[in-house]
């Protein structure tokens, strides 16, 4: 009785500890950084004061992702106000809910304590923390994928018990659909199920009716949706993506996912080692863990193959959902180890390395020292402009050479940002700049420019002299005199 009480007490403490820090690390200083360019794009596309058709047109011009996330953001801004920081509250909500959903998925998989490791790894995962703090679709995609996995697993369990099979199958289809409407790469999870079913049928010669209907309905939905998505995404070229270097094949983004080269390699080799060690059990049982392992493999293989045959599309954040099967399978297999000494040693190493790594990350270090900025800092240069005698400024970046809407993205964000901070300054467009005389500030986002920040695309049409030159994180601010 005492041992059971102590065990329950430990579980409560472990869950509370992980959940507390998981939430804290996601919400603390949530809006410390200003929006980076992709967030500005979502903010511009989701403007609640324009028509639905205009929103959709903007999306087609500026985005390569499906429309659903920006559509939901538009309603968010309409309800809570069109403010620059509001979208991050949307993402961080999904980031927090994902801690619970992935932990619940693990607890469904097997009634052991593996879910305690899962909640710890998800809560302290630096990659998931980072993308929970961005007003982009990645936290949403991660959460909806976890829900699809939950109800697929519950469908398998319902097939055995005969309870709630229709409901769980319906909810799997629903969340699988929502997931790929939010991020096309999530279709990999669906095709992992198809691949699993193929191997399952070959081995056991059993026909799972609920999977037949699930696969058929989702294929019909895909046949309807994919032509629409291709029509949306074809407008936006992914020109910045490149084929992964040889270094990628030494860690498969694990170093990025887990915060350091050491932690990444520990997780990667441990995962591979456990899968190899339990390969007979995995192959013989062909259970839900098999689906998750196939999901891990296809999450890398599919975009790499597409990139080889057509054009590069793989990026760490594009396959953020692969952390679900990685963490769940890793935790599950660790708790399948019979030798308590080996199991406890592995758990201790993972805990110490993961928690210790937090002291090297800014999201933890910010509690006891100044937090550095990694995204462009717009507040301080705009404050300098506001406090100066010269109130006009121009944003100079190479994207002006491509499409007008890129400059509209900047102008929209900065105009609202200026209002929120009560700055009394005026942003000029290129034609207004060309007609100006006197002093003008030039604001240059250095990560979005292909030439010197002091130069302007049409520099041969007018003369100017640089009066003042100030460097910020990822930004350059110059005061120039025209004429």
Please describe what this structure looks like.
The protein has 483 residues and is of the alpha/beta class. The protein has 21 helices and 5 strands. The protein has helices at 2-27, 37-45, 52-62, 68-80, 86-109, 114-123, 126-132, 138-161, 165-182, 187-204, 209-233, 254-258, 261-277, 279-285, 288-309, 323-334, 340-357, 362-365, 379-387, 404-420, 430-434, and strands at 392-395, 426-428, 438-445, 464-472, 475-482. Helix 13 (261-277) crosses helix 16 (323-334). It is globular and about 80 Å long. The chain starts with a helix and ends with a strand. The mean pLDDT is 89.
Rg estimate, integer Å:
25 Å
Q: Are there runs of 5+ residues with pLDDT below 50, and where?
A: none
Structural class: alpha/beta
Distance between the termini: 87 Å
Q: How many helices?
A: 21
Bin the strand percentage: 5-15%
**What is the strand tally?**
5
Biggest β-sheet: strands ordered side by side in the sheet:
2-1-3-5-4
What profile does the largest beta sheet have? 5 strands, mixed
Compute the average pLDDT: 89
Relative helix content: 55-70%
SSE ordering: HHHHHHHHHHHHHHHHHHHEHEHEEE
So what's the overall shape? globular
Key traits:
5 strands; 483 residues; alpha/beta; 21 helices; globular
Topology of helices and strands:
Elements: H1 2-27, H2 37-45, H3 52-62, H4 68-80, H5 86-109, H6 114-123, H7 126-132, H8 138-161, H9 165-182, H10 187-204, H11 209-233, H12 254-258, H13 261-277, H14 279-285, H15 288-309, H16 323-334, H17 340-357, H18 362-365, H19 379-387, E1 392-395, H20 404-420, E2 426-428, H21 430-434, E3 438-445, E4 464-472, E5 475-482
Parallel strand pairs: 1-2, 1-3
Antiparallel strand pairs: 3-5, 4-5
């Amino acid at each position: 009785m005492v041992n059971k009480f102590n065990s329950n007490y430990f579980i409560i403490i472990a869950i509370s500890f992980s959940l507390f820090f998981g939430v804290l690390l996601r919400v603390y200083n949530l809006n410390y950084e200003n929006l980076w360019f992709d967030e500005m794009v979502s903010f511009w596309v989701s403007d609640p004061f324009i028509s639905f058709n205009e929103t959709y047109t903007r999306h087609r011009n500026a985005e390569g992702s499906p429309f659903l996330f920006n559509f939901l953001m538009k309603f968010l801004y309409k309800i809570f106000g069109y403010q620059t920081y509001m979208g991050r509250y949307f993402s961080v909500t999904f980031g927090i809910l994902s801690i619970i959903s992935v932990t619940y998925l693990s607890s469904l998989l097997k009634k052991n304590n593996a879910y305690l490791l899962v909640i710890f790894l998800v809560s302290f995962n630096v990659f998931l923390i980072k993308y929970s703090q961005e007003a982009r679709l990645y936290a949403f995609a991660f959460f909806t994928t976890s829900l699809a996995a939950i109800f697929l697993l519950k469908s398998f369990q319902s097939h055995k018990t005969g309870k709630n099979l229709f409901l769980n199958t319906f909810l799997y289809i629903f969340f699988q659909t929502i997931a790929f409407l939010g991020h096309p790469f999530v279709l990999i999870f669906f095709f992992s199920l198809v691949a699993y079913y193929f191997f399952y049928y070959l081995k056991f010669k059993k026909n799972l009716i609920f999977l037949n209907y699930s696969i058929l309905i989702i294929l019909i939905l895909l046949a309807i949706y994919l032509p629409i998505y291709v029509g949306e995404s074809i407008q936006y070229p992914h020109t910045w993506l490149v084929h992964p270097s040889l270094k990628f094949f030494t860690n498969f983004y694990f170093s990025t996912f887990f915060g350091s080269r050491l932690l990444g390699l520990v997780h990667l080799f441990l995962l591979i080692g456990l899968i190899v060690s339990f390969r007979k059990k995995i192959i013989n049982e062909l259970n839900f863990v098999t689906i998750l392992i196939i999901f891990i493999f296809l999450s890398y293989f599919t975009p790499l193959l597409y990139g080889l045959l057509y054009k590069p599309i793989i990026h760490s954040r594009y396959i953020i959902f692969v952390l679900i099967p990685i963490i769940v399978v890793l935790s599950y297999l660790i708790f399948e180890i019979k030798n308590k000494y080996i199991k406890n040693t592995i758990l201790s190493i993972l805990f110490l390395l993961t928690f210790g790594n937090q002291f090297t990350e800014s999201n933890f270090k910010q509690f006891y020292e100044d937090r550095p900025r990694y995204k462009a800092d717009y507040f301080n240069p705009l404050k300098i402009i506001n406090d100066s005698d010269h109130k006009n400024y121009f944003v100079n970046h190479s994207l002006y050479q491509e499409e007008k809407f890129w400059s509209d993205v900047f102008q929209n964000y900065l105009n609202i940002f200026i209002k929120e901070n009560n700055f009394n300054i005026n942003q000029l467009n290129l034609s207004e700049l060309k007609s100006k005389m006197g002093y003008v500030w030039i604001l240059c986002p250095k990560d979005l420019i292909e030439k010197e920040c002091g130069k302007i695309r049409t520099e041969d049409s007018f003369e100017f002299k640089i009066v003042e030159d100030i460097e910020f994180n990822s930004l350059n601010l110059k005061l120039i005199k025209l004429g």
